[in-house]
Amino acid sequence: MSRQARPRWTDRLRSSVRAKLLVLVLAPLVVGVPVLLGLVWTWGYEAYERLLNFKISSDLVTAHEYFDRVRSGVGYDVQALAESHRLVARLGATPAALSSLLAELAPGRRLDFLLLLDREGRPLAASQPLAGVAIPRLDWPVVAAALHGSALTTVERFSADALQYVSPALRERAWLPLVETRAAAPDARTAEDRGLVIHAAAPVHDEKGNLVGVLEGGVLLNGNLEMVDRINAIVYRDGSLPLGSRGTATLFLDDTRIATNVRLFGDTRALGTRVSQAVRERVLGRGETWLGAAFVVNDDYVSGYEPIADGRGERVGMLYVGFLEEPFRDAGRMAMGALFVLFVLISAAGAALSLRWARSVFRPIERMNAVIQRVEQGEADARVGEVASRDELGRLAGEFDHLLDTLSAKREELQRWAEELDRKVAERTVELSEANETLRRAQQQLVMSEKLAAIGELTAGVAHEINNPVAVIQGNLDVLRDLLGPAAEPVRQEIRLIHEQTDRIRQIVTKLLQFARPGEFAGYAEAVDVNEVVADCLFLTQHGFDRRALEVATDFAASARIEINRSELQQVLINLIVNAVQAMPDGGRLNLTTADWSEDGASVGAVIRVRDTGHGIAPEDLSHIFDPFFTTKKGSGTGLGLSISYTIVERYGGRITVDSRPGEGTEFALWLRREPRYDESPSAPGFLRRW
To answer: Cβ neighbours of residue 602 under 8 Å, at least 6 residues apart?
Structure first.
């Protein structure tokens, strides 16, 4: 190109819209389309690889879940047999009778063997006659765990001698000639005689609950074609793979296929073939999961391998799923080719239409675009203004300005509405919250009133009908003891027990009366030092600490004096401390703290916290712990302690809160007001007699 031609071309490019459009249309075709095609190919291939990896990862998860379910099922079956009445009832039978029972039970649970061991791990009976050299059973993790009282299921690698000992038939099933496999790690062996076993054991207790032995059982995975075919059917259902592809599943013992539906040729399964050395080093050597293409026996498969670990954490095998890769690649290439052709055709058609219909359109559009950018930056009064064009674009520019004016007005109006709506929503939210709280308190009060009314009627009759006979029993016990004198010594313990139980009946009736008619038990209110009351309660309950390894920590920081009946406050605190100690049967830490309670800078009263490090309260029980007769102490307790404590504290205008997490402990907090809020009418349930 000459020096004179070059300026004419650049001048034309700057002054001619047609030249600009030509450059704009041809540049994407000449430069952009090849680049885009390359990017689409690269991204498409990467997306294709990610899609295949995602699918094989999902397939491997499905296979893993099924294998885990099978493994858990073996454990459940062994545990169910260990707890079965038939086995427990015949624990005292002869070894031959026990072996006969195990031989009958094992096939029903599809177990390949069952062994009944004593507490030293010695076999007492077996579902099949034991043969060969005895293998120490205590070396197996599942047996050791069962002897400590816990059922356990693992996958274990059994040696040929271990298989021979539990069943010679299992050793024959496990034997498999090794097939020379391309790319596999060198191995001098010619056959695989070990077995991969789902191994389970559960403790066996007699009818009195004493541990008397262990039930051990298992399922041999070598040659278990039913399992791999089931995994394959679950993972690769009909229609889940493209035409021509097929899915496979395999169980490996180390790197040897012991159960697979991969075909070596024809209908012959590739049993005894081995995985490639690269896969072995990554999965068995480093314990990683293999996701991606791999050569399997005689073809390329999209493969997923994951290690299988035994009870000691050692990698003893692999779980594999995969499918033929070539049909996927063919489908991917066909889809990409069609996409490229379609992309080129659409680009060419678009460029032709743009060249044909594009005229002086950029200037008004650029101005409108500039206005849009200014509006996005916050310049709400930006407008296109007058344009030289009088065609559709000119009218569009005018309508665009009109639209911006309308939007600006609507925006201001919406802003006003939004502010008004926010204000009304806030007001309604506050009102609704207050109404809900009022309704909740009213509902709680109504429920409590109904319970108190019912319990009051019941308790009045109970107190009359029970206390009189109890008094007669106690009086006659005293007379009996006095009349018999030294002759009562042989039954002294029985007399004492009768006296204690009648006293317990009296205490239960008293608690019922106190809960149903709290006003009759209300004491005189006085200004008390909460630190002093907590210290007294700790001293009164200290006798229960001796039998437990408890650590007690106190922090008395409250300075406010609380107007309350001292005895009733002691009753509440002693109940909470005793509950905390009972929650720590194996020892722990008991924290007792006091602090001032302030709201909005003003002193309200004091707060007392009782915290333990026990087993905690289950979340589903937290909402019921203050309900009458609700208790988590099965076989002991009346379920009234916390209900009475809640009633006492609430009567003085305070409240009780609880914070508990299972396994971490529980904290109860008493919020007591300096001047309690109560109803001073003599008929009110919470009427307090002042000094």
So the answer is: none
pLDDT at 405: 78
Dihedral (C-alpha) 258, 260, 262, 268: value to the nearest 10 degrees? 70
Question: What type of residue sits at position 342?
Answer: L
**Is pLDDT at 519 greater than 60 in this prediction?**
no
Q: What is the 3-state secondary structure (H, E, C) of 207-233?
A: CCCCEEEEEEEEEECCCCHHHHHHHHH
The DSSP annotation for 317-358 comes to EEEEEEEESHHHHHHHHHHHHHHHHHHHHHHHHHHHHHHHH-
Phi/psi-derived region of residue 635, left when phi > 0, alpha when psi is between -120 and 50, beta in every other case = left
Whole-number Å distance between alpha carbons of 319 and 279: 12
Distance from the first to the final alpha carbon of the chain:
117
Q: Do 130 and 98 contact (CB within 8 A), yes or no?
A: no
Residue pair 60/289 in contact (Cβ under 8 Å)? The answer is: yes
Tell me if residue 531 falls in helix, strand or coil: helix
**Residue 268: HSE in the Cβ half-sphere, 13 Å Cα cutoff:** 9
Q: pTM of this prediction?
A: 0.48
Q: Helices (DSSP H) in 378-527: which residue ranges?
A: 392-484, 492-516, 518-521
Residue 673 token pair: 């007001």
Q: Does residue 201 contact residue 145 with C-beta atoms inside 8 Å?
A: yes
Place of tokens 């007690």: 552
Q: pLDDT tens digit string along 84-133?
A: 999 998 888 899 999 999 999 999 999 999 999 999 999 999 999 988 78
Using alpha carbons only, give the angle 69, 73, 74 rounded to the nearest 5 degrees.
125
3-state secondary structure 278-293: HHHHHHHHCCCCEEEE
